[in-house]
Amino acid sequence: MAPTNRNTIVTERLNTLRLSLLMCSMIASANMPAQDFASGDSLLADPDKTPPAAIPNPAIPTPPPEASPDPQQFFKDHFFGYEPFYFIAGPESPNARFQISLRYQLLNNEGSLAHHVPPLKGLNLAYTQTSLWDWNAASKPFFDSSYMPELMFLWPRVDRGRWSPRVRLDLQTAFLHESNGKSGLDSRSLNMLYLRPTLTLGNQDRFHLTLSPRLGCYVGGLVDNPDLPDYRGYADLRASAGWTRSIQLAATARLGDSFDRGSLQLDLTYPLSELFSGSLSIFLHAQYFTGYGESFLLYNQTSDAFRVGFSIYR
Asked: How many helices (H) and strands (E) does the chain have?
């Protein structure tokens, strides 16, 4: 055989051997499981295998778990007493009268908005309901109710304690809606914007006097009761005197368009905790009303009523 032919045959055999080795290498790579190059363990070979946990870095602090909100602390920070909260009853119809009232502070004290603009903590919602319940009637129905939601802004300690430790001035402005929830001829409703300053004289832990006038204007129409201002007027005055932990007397007076169109309500309260060694957190409550508009339904009629009961906020 010639040398040239012999070299050609050798070269062809070497190329065939190289091609075979390349194909074997490709087949082996295709059948090899994927590798986790960080640990050298196969993840695809065992799908249920959990990757190894990362080693914590002591230089990076671990954030504490977020605490779940505490409902009791939430209510303590946001809900407050507003108007007196009582249940009282007397012999004449409608016998029972009760009032519930709460105020809700909208912003969180620790939130960023309250932190950067502290006066915004004075933004509040409030709800008051006053109902008359006629026990003398056959089915003992509710005679009338007033539903009063409010959006308000409070400025506590406007004086900032500069006048005297025995003098305090607070301001409140609000938008009030009042309705009795009835329809037709019995429907009553109003909307009012008002400003109420509250001046406290004396030591609040001892004997003190509080004066709280309210000046307002009706907003929108009074379609259901166009003559309401003639009996309710545009202002009222609250005054109270007494001791924080003892007896208090409060008076609320309204004046319509004349001196014979108005009303007066007197509330005398005494904490029963003083009689039962602090075991009861309620007040003995006596109330007398005379004049126009004890009920929203009969705002243009006069009545006199004396009732006694209990209150949990005064």
From this structure: 4, 13
| Residue 254 C-alpha from the chain's centroid | 29
CA distances from 210 to 93, 194, 238, 244, 264 (A): 32, 19, 8, 12, 17
For residue range 279-288, list pLDDT tens digits in order: 889 999 999 9
Q: How far apart are the C-alpha atoms of 16 and 9, rounded to whole Å?
A: 11
Predicted pLDDT of residue 162: 86
CATH of 71-313, one of 3.30.420.280, 2.170.130.10, 2.40.230.10, 3.30.230.10: 2.40.230.10
Q: How far apart are alpha carbons 213 and 239 in whole angstroms?
A: 8
Buried b or exposed e, range 175-210, using 16+ CB within 10 angstroms: ebebbbeeeeeeebbbebebebbbebeeeeeeebeb
User: Which residue intervals of 32-84 are DSSP H helices?
Assistant: 71-78
